[in-house]
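ok, trying the design again with the full structure, not the truncated one.
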C-alpha cells in the first residue's frame, strides 16, 4: 500500500486470523494436506515429487542447484529426491555440456502424464477453496496474489 492512503498495518493486530503471513502460510499448509488426501488414489507421486515436476514444467530443464533453491531444500535433499525420481523413470539427469559439474534435470513423458493428473487434483482443490466466490472474486484474488508475489519477488530474487 502507498504512503498517505489507507493501508494494511500488520502491527495493528496480534490476531493470527488477521495476520497476512499466517494466513498465506496456513492456506498453503491446508492446500498441501488436501492435495495429499486427494492425490493418494490418482497420483503415483508424493507432493514433493509433484512440486519437482511442476517446477520443471514451468521453468523447463534446469540444473539441480536451481531446483533445490526453488523447492527450498538443501541440495543434498534435492539430490536424494531426484535419485528416487530418476529410479522411478520420472526424470532424467544429464551433464551440462557447458559445465560438467552441473547436472540438468528434465521430465520424462511418464512424468508429464502424471503431472496432468496432479493438476486435476489441484484444480479440484481450487474449486473447493474458492467455493462461494463469484468468478470475479476468484479472478481478483488470483490477481492480488500475483501482485503480492511480484512485490516480494522483486525484493527476494534481485
Amino acid at each position: 500500500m502507498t504512503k498517505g492512503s489507507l493501508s494494511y498495518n500488520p502491527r495493528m493486530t496480534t490476531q493470527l486470523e488477521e495476520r497476512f503471513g499466517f494466513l498465506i502460510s496456513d492456506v498453503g499448509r491446508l492446500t498441501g494436506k488436501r492435495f495429499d488426501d486427494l492425490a493418494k488414489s490418482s497420483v503415483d507421486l508424493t507432493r514433493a515429487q509433484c512440486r519437482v515436476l511442476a517446477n520443471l514444467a514451468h521453468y523447463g530443464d534446469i540444473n539441480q542447484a536451481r531446483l533445490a533453491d526453488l523447492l527450498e531444500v538443501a541440495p543434498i535433499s534435492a539430490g536424494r529426491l531426484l535419485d528416487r525420481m530418476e529410479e522411478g523413470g520420472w526424470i532424467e539427469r544429464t551433464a551440462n555440456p557447458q559445465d560438467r559439474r552441473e547436472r540438468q534435470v528434465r521430465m520424462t513423458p511418464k512424468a508429464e502424464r502424471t503431472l496432468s493428473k496432479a493438476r486435476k487434483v489441484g484444480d479440484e482443490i481450487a474449486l473447493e477453496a474458492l467455493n462461494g466466490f463469484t468468478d470475479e472474486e476468484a479472478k481478483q484474488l488470483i490477481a492480488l496474489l500475483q501482485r503480492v508475489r511480484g512485490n516480494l519477488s522483486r525484493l527476494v530474487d534481485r
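Keeping the full-length input from now on. The chain has six helices and three strands.
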